[in-house]
Design goal:
- This protein is an alpha/beta fold.
- It has three domains: 1-57, no CATH class; 59-156, Beta-Lactamase (2-Layer Sandwich); 161-394, P-loop containing nucleotide triphosphate hydrolases (Rossmann fold).
- The chain has helices at 2-11, 20-37, 42-57, 62-66, 100-112, 161-167, 172-183, 198-206, 250-257, 274-282, 298-312, 317-327, 390-394; strands at residues 71-77, 82-86, 89-92, 124-128, 134-138, 148-152, 188-192, 215-219, 232-236, 264-267, 290-294, 330-336, 342-354, 357-369, 377-382.
- The strands form two sheets. Strands 9-8-10-11-7-12-13-14-15 form a nine-stranded mixed sheet, with helices on both faces. It has a six-stranded antiparallel sheet with strand order 3-2-1-6-5-4.
- A hairpin with a 5-residue loop joins β4 (124-128) and β5 (134-138).
- α9 (250-257) packs parallel to α10 (274-282) and α10 (274-282) packs across α11 (298-312).
- The termini are far apart.
Length: 398
């Protein structure tokens, strides 16, 4: 393959933009020359054509994994080890990068497409691929055994709530209830562990936002795919080491968004002091805002929000809890079960703040029933009625 690649590189005119079709034509010519020296089957020719093209215009050997729709995660542990997740199970790939330099070239290609920088002074970066897939990179020597790439792929066709009902991730009754909450502009916070599907679920919920509203999304790396909203502004943070200027944080973007006449603000995920800014936005007339965070349950999510708010500003704990109770209307908790399925586990209403505690009203809960083997079966039980119906009434929704 290296001989073919070298031949193609010699023929390319790097002084101009070269279309893919022209590169493929040169690759075909090189493969034909190689076939005259050594007999190649049709399948071998196709493989060489594909691999050389991927090495020049795509992400080298990773491209094959990226184009497999059944693969959900790709993990590169140095040049010699590549793992992937398929149907909830981890596998080691038989292929690997030919050298450390090849891996480093792919890393720079990934970060360069989004104007990010990763180097020895800033060896960790979060970015995304053109299709929205989330990427985390850690360079050697921080990653002792070689530079690491972690890619979380997103489906080319975003999952809808209907898809989730079909997959058994949510009941129709609970889905219709959440649809009413979104349309009526309740502030909804989605929690869950790593890989539980928080971003996917947020995308699906956003489909219920009326098309006539102005939406602003704020993320570390733009992953959200808000559907059917023409008046949409997407904003993304910027690292401090960019040549274009200083760091732009989620806190900066939330404050800016408040001056942009938003109907709703959607923050992809809160991890720190920006939790305070998000709560203030929810409490100052931006009803219907949405966000996500890492937690093991609804109560745990509230505790984590408390901690994150205190990271942003020193406030009395009583004031923090009162802000949370006033800002968040509903918590939705997701989980990844032992059979690797993703489910909505709890839907809980935040009803207020009394006796130094945030009061919760459980609405729906997933109850596991007896199943065969590792497969998880169960149903969603309605545990209570929504107490705060003012927004439903104001929106004319029963």
């Amino acid at each position: 393959m290296e001989q073919i690649r070298s031949y193609v590189m010699e023929r390319l005119d790097i002084s101009r933009e070269i279309p893919d079709e022209e590169i493929l034509s040169i690759i075909d010519e090189a493969v034909c020359r190689r076939a005259r020296e050594k007999v190649l089957s049709v399948e071998e020719r196709r493989r060489l054509r594909r691999e050389v093209f991927y090495s020049l215009r795509r992400l080298d050997i990773l491209q094959e994994l990226l184009e497999d729709d059944e693969i959900t995660e790709i993990m590169v542990n140095g040049a010699g080890k590549i793992f992937y997740e398929k149907q909830g199970r981890l596998f080691q790939w038989e292929k690997c990068f030919q050298s450390r330099e090849k891996l480093e070239n792919v890393i720079q290609q990934i970060v360069g497409t989004n104007n990010r920088v990763v180097n020895e002074y800033s060896p960790i970066v979060d970015t995304r691929l053109p299709d929205g897939s989330r990427v985390n990179i850690v360079l050697q020597p921080i990653a002792i055994d070689g530079s690491c790439i972690s890619i979380r792929k997103f489906s080319r066709k975003p999952l809808t709530i209907e898809d989730m009902i079909g997959l058994g991730s949510l009941s129709r009754e609970a889905a219709e209830f959440l649809e009413k909450l979104v349309r009526a502009r309740y502030n909804i916070f989605i929690s869950g562990g790593t890989g539980s599907g928080k971003t996917t679920f947020l995308n699906a919920l956003s489909a219920y936002i009326p098309a006539g509203e102005r939406i602003i999304t704020i993320e570390d790396s733009a992953e959200l795919k808000i559907q059917n909203v023409p008046n949409l502004v997407r904003m993304e943070t910027r690292n401090a080491n960019m040549e274009a200027g200083n760091e732009i944080t989620i806190r900066d973007l939330i404050r800016t968004a408040l001056r942009m006449r938003p109907d709703r603000i959607i923050v992809g995920e809160i991890r720190g002091g920006e939790a305070l800014d998000m709560l203030q936005a929810m409490n100052t007339g931006h009803d219907g805002s949405l966000s996500t965070g890492h937690a093991n349950g609804c109560q745990d999510m509230l505790k984590r929000i408390e901690t994150m708010v205190l990271m942003g500003m020193e406030l009395p704990l009583e004031a923090v809890r009162a802000q949370i109770a006033a800002g968040i209307d509903v918590l939705v908790h997701l989980g990844r079960l032992r059979d690797r399925s993703r489910r909505v586990l709890d839907i809980v209403e935040v009803t207020g703040y009394e006796n130094h505690q945030i009061c919760l009203n459980p609405l729906y809960r997933f109850r596991e029933t007896a199943g065969e083997g590792e497969e998880v079966t169960g149903c969603w039980e309605k545990e209570g009625e929504l107490q705060d119906r003012e927004k439903l009434l104001a929106a004319g929704i029963e």
